[in-house]
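Incident log entry.

Two folding requests arrived from the same account within the same minute. Monitoring flagged them as a possible duplicate submission, but the sequences differ. Recording both here for audit purposes.

Request one:
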Amino acid sequence: MSAPIDGTGHPGPVSHVSDTALWVAVHRATESKRKDALFHDPYAERLAGERGKEIAGQLDRGQGSAWSIITRTAVLDDLIMNAVRDGADAILNLTAGLDTRPYRLSLPSSLRWVEVDFPDMIAYKESRLADASPRCALERIALDLTDRPARQRLFARLNEENDQLLVITEGLLIYLTQYDVAALAEDLHAMPHFRRWIVDVLTPELLEWLLKSHFKTFATGSVQMRFGAPGGPAYFEQFGWRAHTVRKITLESRRLKRQMPRAWLFKLLASISPKHVRERFSKFETYLFMLQRA
């Protein structure tokens, strides 16, 4: 399932899931240039490249997604640092994409950070970051996570090698089927030293609305958004995971002063809408939460 991410062989805005990492990097680069930036990523612009700008230009007219991507990045930074302070000695970032946290966060040098992604993504990232030095012990592993036996072998090895491991699946679950999410949750929980898991999910209601409005390309294209978690964090309890920390992106964006465009208008419309309309839109939410073993 590996594919080049340098712009060759791309007939549309997104033809492989790896393209979404370029899109996210564009928004990290834009945020980093602000005087009141929530984070500073000096590598984002070079990672995004011209292909990233092209994708963002086609998907994000009016910066419609920037607020949520930036908010998610900032909140996830905090959750990671909290987990490290609580004793996490290793981090496993599944489908790490173009994440640069090992380079930009104030991490202890003793921390082990393992990134997993497609071979082409890892090769691209290593070439763009050849002159950069991570702040912790960084390891990259080329692996297609849809190969369940291979990922189970990897999980088993990392479980043996670490005591308190934090798993990150930023931007991953939405592209999986419900069956695949369940299988991944089970595989992670089968490892006793995988203590916590950071997840971002949309509600099914929000996902359905986005696919009909802003992100039609992800409804029928070669890369599809499929998974919305019914019940949010509670969905994962059936697999042995319970919520440790829960953040709603809409509330966090308000706190961080990165609200969606025309947020004031949506708030006004909600105040004058009938009850059934307000109830429907109240279910439009993105969650970012840290799970722990039940």
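Request two (distinct sequence, not a duplicate):
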Amino acid sequence: MKTDIYETITNQIVEALENVDLKNFQSCFTMADGGLPTNAVTGAQYRGVNILTLWVAAQQKRFTSNIWASFNQWKQLGASVKKGQKAANILLYKNAEKIDKETGEVSEYMLARSYAVFNADQVEGWTPQPIDTQPVIVDGRNETIENFISATGAVIVEDTSAFYRPSTDAVHMPSRSQFVDFYGTAAENYYSVLFHELAHWTKASHRCDRKFEELEPRDRYAAEELVAELSAAFLCGMFGIKQAGRDDHAMYIKSWLEALKNDKKHIFKAASLAQKAVDHLKSYSESCSSLKEKKAA
């Protein structure tokens, strides 16, 4: 029987969500030590739903590394996958064509293919190069992140709570002094929350234009929150910081689980929209060399 990769990945993420402690909510969409999953051979960072797939696989198997590669890629590096190890499956999309038998018209579509990859913890004969991924934070600020945020040009207003107000196109944030060390540092928690709100900022019609018109009105808010949560996780991973858990996000877990169980492609759509939001935010500071990345899966 052919494996349904969409169902397999969705089930893994559903399991991760079901294991979330709602009384002490921490996002399951990230690695404890930050960082995005990266290919050992190309150095490319994985994108979209593949980030979630590899994060969840790493959490479930308690891997400490964010480095992945296929069986042949590890062999290319002189390493070998340990006997009995099971791979994680990722999706790669390629352009394909189909021909209408009646009209002969050719149309293009994206063909999804499943690929097996193994974590660095699953191989032997390979020593990773030491990389200092700890963000440099001075006086509660990280210069690279500050430049990234500033480049977006988003209007950020100090307020008593965090939210995006479409009517004024402004992001509202509590002062930095309101954030404390919890799970991550106070600065990491501030940036994590701000990334979430900046993701909401991208939904405007003149930016990413997210509307979720295909969903029932009652489901659209939770869908947007999932995209913002994933976007914040991707950004935290990109900058190597920890994603803060927010109690007000825990209330959406039930809605997310329901949506994922009803539509096996829901998380793929949400991850794709989140990646678009991140790419949009990055587009403002593409000239910054520290944010450039190789073409990734």
